Amino acid sequence: MVPNCLRSEAAMQNSEAERMAEWFVLALCLWREARGEPLEGKAAVADVILNRAADPRWPDSVVGVITQRWQFSAFNQNDPNVTKFPDPKGSAADWRAFVECASVALQAMDTPPTGLADHYHAKNMEPFPKWTRRMNRVGVVGGHVFYDSKTTEQGAD
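The structure assignment produced for this chain is given below.
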């Protein structure tokens, strides 16, 4: 199976510098958004980002998707995580895990954990965001609920 981030011709033509930027920003996003998640949860968040990059409704790059205004809370100016960066000296093993997850996600993902999900939120959010009502809930992985916005069969209550 072709990994989600490589489904588009544009993604295959990225320069090495662009690929390195995507890798770093994806690892940082996973660190900010999925720090407490098991590997499967980190991979599910990465999959949402890669699904969006392959979908014409969003920017066609990982960096563009992650930094699009109001899309990933950890990159919003009013979020406390926006200024946080991992300390490679203090938590080298933790940061390495996020880097490896980003690398694997950008290279290949045989079975995406969330299918074609393109949205998620923390499962402890109460009430669930209003936008979930018009989307198909595809599952829960770790501490997040995942949705596919292209179908509306069974949105959250």
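Interim note for the steering committee: The first strand starts at residue 119 and ends at 122. The CA atoms of residues 54 and 120 lie 17 Å apart.
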